Amino acid sequence: MLTNSKSIIKAPFAAFSWLVTKLFSQQGLALSGLLLAGVLAWGPWLRPPLSRDFRGTHIPWSVTVGSSLDPFDALETPRFRPLSSVGGTLLILISAGAAVVLVWPSSTVWVFGGLFVVSSAACAAVQFNQPALVEVLNVELVQREEMKRLFAVHHEDLLTGNSPDRTADLKDPKRVKNPIGFGAESAWRFQMFGPWLVGLAGVGFLTSISGSWRRRTVIALSGLVVSLACAGLVGGRRGVMQYHLFQAYAFEMNDDYTAASHALQGAVAAFPSLRDTRQYWLTTGRLAYRLDKSNSEVAYFRAHQLMLDKQLDDAVAILQPHANQADCPRSVRDLMADLISRKAWVAVRKGNPSAAEIQWRQAFTYAPWRHLEWAGVGIAMAMASPHQAERIEEWILPKMVQIGDRFVRADMASLVGDAYFLDGQFVKARQLYEQSRSIFSFPKYVNIHAQEGMLGM
Question: pTM score, two decimals?
Answer without folding.
Answer: 0.86
